Amino acid sequence: MFYTGNPNSVAAEYITPEREWNFNKLSADFSSVDVGRILSLPLSHHVASDYLIWHGIGGEYEVKSGYLFSCSSSDDTIKSVSNPNTAWWKSFWQLKLPPKVKIFAWKAIHNALPIAAELFKKKSLTSASCSLCLNAWESVGHALFSCKHARHVWKIVGFSFKNKAAVSMKIEDFLFQISECYTKSELETIFCTMWSIWSDRNNVIHGKLPQQPTVIYAKAQNFLNNYKSTQLLYLHAGLSPAATPSTCKAWTPPPPTCLKLNVDAAFDEGRNKIGFGAIIRDSNGKVRASMSHPINGCCQPQEMEAKGLFYSLKWARQFNFKVDMVETDSLILANALRKSTSNRSSFQDLIFDVQTQLSYHPTVCVNHVYRDGNQASHGLAKQALVLDNICTCLEGFPLAILSVVVKDSLIL
Ligand SMILES: [Zn+2]
Fold first, then answer.
1. How far is the CA of 167 from the centre of ligand 1 (A)?
2. CA nearest 359: which of 313, 296, 300, 308?
3. Where is the RNase H type-1 domain (predicted)?
4. pTM over 0.70
5. Residue 182 Cα, ligand 1 centroid: separation in angstroms?
């Protein structure tokens, strides 16, 4: 850990009066890697004495998980000494990338792409020159980084690489080197863009016209964003990708005279920012209030959802809304609120916070809803990611969610 602050400081000095980590103060005294680690510890709002917890949602120690942890940590030590590449591969497989892109990157590093220089060596091609620019040997480094077609794309993406290094170094070493300089989210963009550049190169070889660099980049971004939002959908629903929900349920209004609160959380990994969205509607679908609330942090999805619900309930109480129904698209959260448990974990601490807020709304019930029925609060959570402070609209909502609110009210 790298620390430049006052050696006598205590953790409480890095916590705001709103019980969130003070991002600016942390950034001033800790390295960015450590700030990320600290932000991943969610803070609860009730006073509790310190206690030791084990990794995982339950917080209870199990021999099996202890054995697995000890194997993985001793493996790490051995691997980091004997083979630094193993650590790189481990973090590579953890990147949130579509499987197709991971396989492509694996092939690129293992010289398994049908690149002209390799095919020439195997005498499958009569020339090793680049099929696109005809100006150089087509190595993986040339095709993906230093060829003028690739360079135009990287310029749009906003990354600049040393072109000489890309062709003179082994592609494996070159990628290891650039991995040191970029965040996980930037590396995900880089690998997806490499894949898109390669797809375009293949299309040209098969007789198609080359795409504009902006189109190649947009294809990479779309592929990555679609993959990430699908993964998030599974997480929200508490399902594994194999168990895709077969039914999509639209938003439904509460019974007459009742109010329904929908809540959601969104996350900007690159900026360690979490957005919470909340919307209260009546039986006619009329919006009574909406909120977008940003905080700094990067905890687990179910922890973000729990925090979002906590802030939304607190906000509803602050504006004297007597909420009758609450909906979240996190199945883990909805289930955790139903069960009473003696487990000790950071998630359980946040559940306790939510239960404290729920005690002010004694008749309220919290239900799980599919993502389709929670789009308005999702839009508000996303909106929070571009705000610096909490934003509340009474008797209204931001224009960004107009189409969703109208769509929900048409179903009535
Ligand atoms: Zn070229």
1. 11
2. 313
3. 262-384
4. no
5. 25
7 burial type by CB count under 10 A (0-12 exposed, 13-18 middle, 19+ buried): exposed
What is the C-alpha to C-alpha distance for residues 398 and 289, in angstroms, rounded to an integer? 10
SS3 68: helix
Q: How far apart are the CA of 101 and the centre of ligand 1, in A?
A: 21
Domains recognised in the chain with CATH numbers: 11-74 (no CATH), 92-237 (no CATH), 260-410 (3.30.420.10)
Measured in angstroms, how far is the CA atom of residue 188 from the centroid of ligand 1?
A: 24
| Residue 108, token pair as written in the block | 């690129």
Spacing, Cα 209 to ligand 1 middle (Å): 15
Ligand 1 centroid to residue 135 C-alpha, Å: 6
Q: How far does the centroid of ligand 1 lie from the alpha carbon of residue 386, in Å?
A: 39
Task: Tell me, in angstroms, the distance from the centre of ligand 1 to residue 222's CA.
Answer: 25
Side chain identity, residue 288: R
Token reading at 102: 């991971």
Give the pLDDT confidence of 156-200 residue by residue, as tens digits: 888 888 878 888 888 888 898 888 888 889 999 999 999 999 999
pLDDT for 191-235, tens place per residue?
Answer: 999 999 999 999 988 889 989 999 999 999 999 988 888 777 666
